[in-house]
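Loading example: each entry is read as two labelled lines plus one structure line.
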Amino acid sequence: MIRYIILIFLFSINLFAQSDSTLTTDQIIQDLLEESSIDLEEDYLYDLLEELQDNPININTADINTLLTIPFLDLNSAQAILDFRERFGKFFHAREILAIETLDPNIARALQFFTTTEEVITKPLIDLSGLSGEFRSRFVRDLQDRQGFLNGNYAGDEFKSYQRAKIKFGNFNFAGLIEKDPGESKFNDFTSFSVSLNDYSYIKKLTAGDYLIEFGQGLIYWGPYSFGKGAEAVRTVSRSAKSIRDYTSTDENQFYRGAAGNFIYDNFDLTVFYSYNKRDANVDTSTGELTSLPISGYHRTQGERSRFHQSAERALGGILSVDLFNSLRIGFAYQNLEYDHPIRQTGLFNPYGKSFNFYSATYSFVYNNVRISGEAAYNEVSVASINSIEWILSNKLSFVTSIRNYPRNFYTFKGTGFGEGSNTSNEFGIYNGIKWRSNFGIINFYFDQFKFPYESFTSDYPSSGNEFLFDYQFRPATRTLLNLRVKREFKEVTQNIDGSPTSLDQYRTNVRINYDYYVLRNLRMRSRIEYVFFDQSIVETHEKGYLLFQDFRYDALDQLRFYGRIVLFETDSFNSRVYQFENDVRGVLNNPALIGKGIRWYLMIEYDLFDFARISAKYSELYKPDEVLLSSGNSQINNNLDNRLTFQLDIKF
Amino acid sequence: MKKKNIILILIFILILYFQSAAQVSPGAKQIALSHSDAAQSNDVFALFGNSAGLAQMNWREVGIYYSPSPFGVKELANAYAAYIEPFSFGNISVGYMQYGFELYKENKVALSFSRNIDNNFFIGVTALYQNLSIERYGNDNAVTINLGGLYYLSEDTRIAMYAQNLFRATYGKESDQIPFIMGFGASHDFNSLITFNASVEKEIDFDPSFRFGVEYSLIEYVTLRTGFMSEPSSYSVGLGIHYSFVTLDYAFFSHPDLGLTHQAGIIIDFNPSSPRKEKIKNYLFNK
């Protein structure tokens, strides 16, 4: 009986959801990524969410650890889904998630696109039914000539080209990618390919070609992306690994190339892999040592081309996980990396030699409303660890505490552990986060304290710092959302004063007011004011920067959408730079740092040509009135205007 | 020789005056509120500020504003006229502005279209044809495009945004002679007598200007106004007298460098049925 009432309720919610908002998956992805407040213009995160969309998680069979591999889902929400399933039985449809009262409506809406209720049926190995695929073709061109083209330093033309195809039939996935950056001469400067077999008998995944490996909390294995600290204060700390991921991104160096298999038997889950990948490298010809492994992937100038595939990296390893008592998952991993040239010793604690071994153990334990998870990793020198407790105090209040300890002589080549620094080394930190869905709005707060016990990138001495974020969202009127955010970061940095390195206190404060309002069902406006304050003691640096923007998103027709924004910004220098996450064609992240004084605006149009094809185009312009040239070196523009045109064609069948 | 010096000083003042562009905007009401009225732009002079506000009006109106010698300098004289005609498809307004004296003259012709997109949302697009002539330097023309939006959060609360000179039109070969300006504002009717306004405006070459203003209807015929802003730091007070179809507005404001001055304007309303705010609410919410 209750079930039927809920069904009726569900349908009414559906109607409401549809009339309240016409959010598409892409908009949800954009919103999620914007929250992650990343500084990179990389597409891993986008690919991650697209992959999840293509391979949704079955909410009728998933356990808590599987649910938590959805990047934006917190323990609280995952638990709510399981509780609902326990009370009312299997879900009829992913939309039924909307009926879970304790779930944040935004999360529920997003979940519809990343979950399914369809059972995985073991099909015959070769099964051509259900063939589907997608093709994405993108061309980008800067309309201003950059110095590298004018002086002939760049070999190729000014187009950036990106061509990707994915095909799926039966249990097989194929993916191929060809990319060329502006200035590169070959159309296929970067080529990536993978084929994988999924969910066939004991085989969960078998991949040949390019792939990524995830394990534990990312101390020795993880993709070259991470969500990092963001406005979701509780969710972002502890991770849920997905073992093997087919690689569909454009980073040209940090993936594995070879074969990998993930097998399940009863409660055991085993992954083994072998990879041999050529990498861009700087090799000292006199000693034969590797001096660096650049990851930019650019091959435009003589110098950049001379680094192309100068070294090879061989990787092999395995991961064994086991689920115990329905609530505990433990895992062990091994990895060996070998380079064809020895890595030069650059510091007492930096890696050197040719061959490296890594060992790691991880656990995740969920009991009632508490999840304890962590990882410890050993690089044959020292042990790094991270441990977290996520605690749901009520369905409105959740809390997380995490302690990380990455010794100065720990290093990792493939890991990206949670932390302030990016290299999972030389850091000790304690993170506390709280999320409270109160009656007067949603409050996210975190406080992260960190210490670098040895010299770091920004300091010649041991240093420490902390960071807090306070984020408050509430709805002052129907169809509107006000967001206030204050973020303050304190760090000890070193600067040369009168010839001697001096430690000084550095503060960076961001204050943001953001207001979203649905003017019409299909027209969303967004206004924002953001201030950045940058202060340093002793040298008495006090800088500020800010931006104002007005944004709109208009779904003119079912097939036609417009996105636009005007940004006015002014910053004293790079220190007080401001960021604003921009809409771009699908698959592209754009979060440019705005420095100096100027205007940026863009207009993007998306048109669904047919059911299966979409074209999109974006024009963006950055104008700085007081400059005579922009950027420097080969990317210099001899003008104060930087404008760009992007075209993309998406075909899905 | 002496005359030349005076002209130089005058031109310097003119530049100062011109750069704080907000002050060139017309309307004694707008000035009395220290231009915090982005979200309360509900008279015909909205044409020169946030033209989205014009769409709130379903009646004809003519406004004339004249400032014969601001700060005691008759060379700074400026005059504005504006007219609005409501149509079923939206409102069309035209305006004219003149500023300066024989050595430095500026003329503008404005044409604006504003429309109610939804019950609560208004947009306005204004094209300004501008002419500048400086003695012995010649003259030049430019067309600038302004955009405005106004949204009613509730009957009593409005927010607004506007951008001026969107495509960065300019005089001569020198870029940025006409500034790019962007602003946001909010306005709240505390009760039927008191309205609070706040706004921020940023011109590309200047610090952002934060503005605040209050309007108080003392009696049916008299409205009192006051406001202040941060860039340039200034205070303002004003008075509006409404009788039948005539509204007389007066404003008095301070400028940090130039001192105090007075402004006045007159608005003729062809449908003087009830006070302005009431009329707009009736039109928007009691249809």
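Residues 193 and 217 of chain B are 5 Å apart (CA to CA).
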